Amino acid sequence: MADPGEGVAADGTIRTGVGRSRVPSAFEPVLSDATILADERGASLYVYGSVANGTVRPGSSDVDLLSVGLRDTAAAGRLLSARYVGLCRGVEIAAAEVGDLAGDSDAAYGYRVFLRHYCVHLTGQDPSAGLPAFPADARAARGFNGDISRYCLSWRQELEYGTVAADLLGVRAARKTLLAVAGMVSIRDRTWTTDRARAARRWGEIEPGLAAPLRMLLSWATAERRPARDEIPPVLAGDGIVAAVVERFADIIGLWADDQRDPS
What we know:
The protein is of the alpha+beta class and 264 residues long.
């Protein structure tokens, strides 16, 4: 679900609707159990996504958590997913380290923006404490999705070697690519959004020739339908929609410094 509080504040910084008070009471047991796991292992824990901004749909949404210093997040996620199978589609725990925030790289900057504006601290030390509000600008958009070129290369390798199921690969590609499109919309329209549906619709207006493939990606990203195996190669081809987004993202926002400009 789109965050209705997302946008640009009066001072030009990123605004979102996340907050501890916005977490629906039905999801408090999930966060409580996840917090116990993190505390036992001396890790920090955050919640983000629809649970953090209050738009979560019981039974069909994921619970998205970010850990700093938690080992074996996959096992912890499986445990919590099984425990709350009737409440949510799954509990996903992303893993990070304190060092990920440090430095002047695009990746570190994007991580700081994400923690500051999209995550609600639950327990443990808070590396984001004291971070300022960040401008809704190209540097933030690049920090979030300037790695789209390297993802494109990785998806092509996974398709070639069959290391990931084709339908899952299509969903991953759709979700990440549309986030990159959201960054382009943000800079093009002088706004700030991570809403995939809004991004697909708006860029389809800007470039009508891309409207149909963007709608297809959106249908995959929202689970409206699963991608067919024979649909994936054209999407990832050198003249496909992902390559088109990489090219435009590079021109409008710029890729991470060590990434290739053209993945074709």
